[in-house]
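Changelog note: in this version the structure field was regenerated for every chain. One regenerated record is shown below for reference.
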Amino acid sequence: MWVIPAVDLKGGRAVRLREGRPEAETQYGDPVEAALRWQAEGARLLHLVDLDRALGLGDNREALLRVAEALQIPFQVGGGVRSLAALREVLSFGAVRAVVGTVAVKDRALLAAMLGEVGPERLAVALDARGLEVVVSGWQEATPLSALDLLREWAEMGVRTVIYTDVRRDGTLEGLDLEAVARVREAWPHELIAGGGVAGPEDLRGLARLGVEGALVGKALYEGRVRLRDFLQGVS
């Protein structure tokens, strides 16, 4: 299992939100510096999120382009990718794949069109949830949908990568809800990346024991709770 650093962008800065709340923000400076730091420490893939676009507050296109131009490792981009035009733009930045969330929950026809245009290798689906209660629109809108039902439907549509984030714990350093991750792992037979609340190495070992292929880590890296160099050979 590989550790994937997350760089969230808001107002042109690298930030982490607590539980997805825009008002609970910790800033970490220039996103290019953050991205280059994780690259220098050996990251194999970066996860970039445009929080402003996800929240309908503008976008971080200029900052994302600066990050893209500076990086020499693969990166994926999510946050407000809700149209074919937005999908094409994200991939034009040089992203190896785009990450869609709200579209995958609310508009299966558009998700099918995206899969048809770029294929499952270049499109990951974000399952953002409070435990297993699905949320959309930058985590601000709850839905009555079952996460496990969605996973089955996405698999039938041809999705092959899911990124599960537990919004209740994201940015809190309180540790993962491994029971919720285990239920997602049981329901999803393909590539699974998980995060939301990683507090230290034991959380990463817990994900590895569940057979998760990738761990998204944000605040624990920025705050020094996890050292990326300790996991260059993967976690087992």
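Spot check on this record: The chain is about 35% helix and 30% strand. Residues 35 and 168 are 25 Å apart (CA to CA).
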